[in-house]
Amino acid sequence: MEPKKSKKADLESKKSLFFQTGIVLALLAVFFAFDLKQYERPEFDLGTLDLDIIEEEDIPITRPEEPPPPPPPEASQELIIVDDDVDIDDEFIIDAEADLYEEIPEYEPVIVEEEEVEEDYVFTIVEDNPEFPGGQEAMQKFLRDNIRYPTMAREAGIQGTVFVTFVVERDGSISNVEVVRGIGGGCDQEAVRVVKTMPTWKPGKQRGQPVRVQFNLPVRFMLN
């Protein structure tokens, strides 16, 4: 014989009961959940807050007032009258270290002796340069009027500048005429000849004394 389950052990008959019980418990849980007291959080609106803004006051920096300087003393307007008969020494020397019994030596001015210039010394740079009578333009005119273009240089087509050096003496005369750089064709000799025929110059001076001065002169030869 097959064994049979008892009705108490059969749970199929109680399935509907368990289901209804679960629904009731779920509804109760939901009801209690809604029935609980809810605490509302206060909402704050920052825009509505009343804040008292305290403005900072500028505190001025105070300095102790200095007392005004005392007024200058009033100048005395008392006049002292001196007799005109009193003689006043023009030269009055005070020596702080001199005693009453010490003799003060008389003042002796220092005389600077001028250096004597050697007669044969030739200067290249002086305080007052020698000068042709009438100046630079007069000298150029003298050269144009007195230079004769050499025939050899003209035929050979030679032209250029001859540099001549000479010494202007103390009396203004010309000496030691030499050619420093020439161009040939007879132009060098012609430049020396014309320079030697120059009139007396105004002599150069050093410390107010006439001295011998070396002078350099360019003489140009140009073909027309």
**In one word, what is the shape?**
elongated
Structural class category: alpha+beta
Compute the CA-based radius of gyration. 65 Å
The CATH architecture of the domain at 122-221 can be named as 2-Layer Sandwich
User: What are the segments in which pLDDT stays under 50 over at least 5 consecutive residues?
Assistant: none
Please give the CATH class of the domain at 122-221: Alpha Beta
Instruction: State the helicity in percent bands.
Output: 10-25%
| Major sheet size, sense and barrel closure | 5 strands, mixed
- Number-wise, the strands total 5
How does this model look, in words?
- This protein is an alpha+beta fold and about 220 residues long.
- It has a domain at about 120-220: TolA/TonB C-terminal domain, CATH 3.30.2420.
- Helix content is about 20%, strand content about 15%.
- It starts with 14 loop residues before the first helix and ends with a strand.
- The model has no long low-confidence stretch (mean pLDDT about 75).
